[in-house]
Amino acid sequence: MKNRRLVMIPGPTPVARSIQDQMGRETIAFGDPNFVRDYKELISDLKTMWKTAGEVFVVAGTGTMAMEMAVANTLKKGDNVLIVSHGFFGDRFIDICERKGFNVDVLASEWGSIVPVAEIESKLREKKYQALTVSHVDTSTGVRAPIEEIGRMLKQFDEIIFIVDGVCSTAGEMEYVDDMGIDILFTGTQKAFGVAPGLAILWAGPKAMERRKSLGTIPEYYVDFYKWLPVMQDPSKYFATPAVNLVWALKESVAIIKEEGLEYRFVRHQKVAKAMQMALEALGFKVLADKNYRAATLSNLVYPEGINDVEFRNSLRDEGVVVAGGLGAYAGKMFRLGHMGNIDMHDLVSVIATIERALYKAGRHTELGKGVGILMQEMLRDRGQA
Prior knowledge:
Elements: E1 6-7, H1 17-23, H2 33-49, E2 55-60, H3 63-72, E3 80-85, H4 88-99, E4 103-108, H5 117-124, E5 131-135, E6 137-138, E7 143-144, H6 147-153, E8 161-165, E9 184-188, E10 199-204, H7 206-215, H8 225-233, H9 244-260, H10 262-282, E11 286-287, E12 298-302, H11 309-319, E13 321-322, E14 324-325, E15 334-338, H12 345-361, H13 370-379
Helix pairs in contact: 1-9, 2-9, 10-13, 11-12, 12-13
């Protein structure tokens, strides 16, 4: 009998049954009063929980679409933008911005480390920038950027719009829009929210909305804030068809988060990450990210010498766990393991046990149960299970 497969890539993440049930509901008209009420409550919750006096946009689309939405509504051709990149997805902003005619400068870190905040500040003093972008967690490296520190530093630069890519962090890493000086935060449903792919979520703080106002008419149509703003303020209005069942699914996800408590959810993700990384290091893997800047939502694990990437990931899949391969220079040298969203203790133990079996099959005679023991010891420390 084949093992049930746990999809533990850095997104899509496992979807809880109650969220699946919402996606499986009979679809109704998007103008139905019950759906309008649900959509409105969702938007209100997102605005309150992530603390902004600005606006929230919940729109059918991907995280990459949200990247474009962020810059299209805050920058015009000829504007200067500083891109702080900690990996593959930070670099994605380069192409998006250059295609729109922005003047792009890039500060890129060595994979696994961050660009120091002092270096960012020094660069910002060289000329006048209209925006700065950074990924809170870059999925390619597992590095967590110090966005709160960056936000404090940016208080010196009133004209700069601070754009944070939260695709692999929001609902797993601590983020509060206005409190942290973030002007735009965006994410997708398929990561730490634990919903199927298909919705982009974007928070635009007051300064971002003022910048949008100053731009007047923009060339973009679908991602224009002003096309969606009337709908976000009154979901009975129409611009483009909302993804009804995904809105319900996201609403259920937010209900789960509210029941758990957003602050505790952040703490849980940190605890899980520490336990998983300790267990995996004990099994011979190296975590790519610097220990001071490791993400809580995923781990990027460099293989011990002698492990063949394709064979190992195939063996893992056969044993019941699906992980993602490395990107860029680390393709074939590491795998990427997501541990975010609504996963529980059963999932975590199963993942480490499966990795132990795959190592054993690869001829690495690791003491079976070693990683599982470390994981459980850490997870049961101080308070109960995740």
